[in-house]
Each structure stands twice: as structure tokens, then as C-alpha cells.
Amino acid sequence: MDTAKKIYAAGCAALLCLSLSSCAHRAHKGQDTDLSAHAPAVPDKCTDPLSRGGKRIGAREISFCLAESLGKIKGWTQEDYGPGGKPVSKAAVNVRPLAVKIDTKANAPLPNAEIILIEGKTFIRQNGTWKEAGADSADKNYALISRMPRYFETMLNPKLRAAGTDPQQTYSIEGKTTLLGREVTKISAENRDPQGRIPVRTFRFYVTKDYLTLKSEILQDGKIISSSVVTAVDRYQQIRRPKISK
């Protein structure tokens, strides 16, 4: 995995927990009699799909609600884990204005790094030196990384997030449980390769009634290989633009 993909993976993890992001997968296109045979239109408001009950839920509907709900909070923090529950990174996010700070651990794809997205720019520090990732950078990896703020903005926009979601994608409703003292609904989807060349992966999310995701998990062969857990929500985070020596 090249540098750009490693940093994108870290950025996706920071957004995955609360936005139901599809950074890493295309979920199973399920069929259910409760859903229309035609592709659903992009919603213009949250239809509160969890309140309807049933066994499946349309991804476009819930994606809109999740993004809209994010727009109502100040920010959040989360911790991300890899196989065996080993810590991979910590992230802090402010919603408006958008700012993200990611600190990676030694066993992360991009180890011992600090990544900051702020004021539409992306900065990376590894080995003690800050660098800005610009669209005009001679390094193609950094040019690609510079697009991350735009990606985050899109994922936090309800209509754009819903429009970018597969209209046939659905999630199974597994039931309810309690997390961080709040009741959450567990929803999941499987990613199956029709050719059977890659293992089946299950993507599971724990969503509150007001459409905040407090936990996300990726399972392979029944084992958790990646997870993210929210540690604080609706709190403004202290994220500052780094100083770069000229």
C-alpha cells in the first residue's frame, strides 16, 4: 500500500464511525419485499427509517439521516482498533468549520504519524517534520491526499452523501443493545465477492435513535479485524493549524 492509500485509510477510519462511510467497501445489495423494486430517489429530508421496524433498511435513507445528524453536533473523538483489538489511531473531529486531527500508533498502516485537516488543507507530520499536501505537489501521493478535505465535506453533506450511496444497497437490522449508556440499533451488511476470490466481510454499525453511530466494526470469517468507538460526542475539539518552517 502506497503512502496516499495509507493516509486515506486513516482518514476513512476517522469518518467511518459516525458517517457510515463506504470508504472501504460496497455493501451487499439485498433484496427484500419491504423495499421498492425501483431505485429510491435521493431524499431531501430524514425519513426516520429506523422507526418503521422491519428487517432491512435502505442505505440512501439512513445515509442522509446520519449526515444530517452530524451537522447538528460540534464534534467528536474516537479510537480505532485493528486485528486483536490493538489500538491503531485516535481521531478528533470538528464539524463546523471542518477540522480533523488523527494520531496513528506504531502498528498503523502509516505508523507514528499526525495528520491534520484544517481550513481546506491537509498537513502530515512524521519523524518530527510537518509537510503540507497540496494539489500542485510534485509528489503524486501528496497531491491525492490534498483532496481529503473535499471528501470529508462531501461525506458530511446529507444530499451529497445520499446521492453517492448505491441506491440498491441495504442493511440488515439485527436488533437493539446499549452502548455508552444509550440505546442503539445494530445494522449490518455483507460484502461478498461473486467469484469467491476474497473472504466475506461484514460491516456492522451501532446507531442511536437520533442517527449517531457510536461504534463500527468490520468482521472477516466472524472475527473483528477493525473497529472504531466514539469516546466523546457533541464536543468542540482543540485542533490548530500546524506551523511549517520555510
Structural overview:
With 246 residues, the protein is α+β, with helices and mostly antiparallel strands. It is built from five helices and twelve strands. The protein has helices at 3-19, 59-70, 140-145, 148-155, 158-163, and strands at 56-58, 75-81, 87-94, 99-104, 113-118, 121-126, 129-133, 170-179, 182-191, 201-208, 213-220, 223-233. The protein has a twelve-stranded antiparallel beta sheet. A hairpin with a 4-residue loop joins strand 3 and strand 4 (99-104). The longest helix has 17 residues, at 3-19. The chain is globular. The chain starts with a helix and ends in a 13-residue tail after the last strand. The model is unreliable at 21-37 (pLDDT under 50).
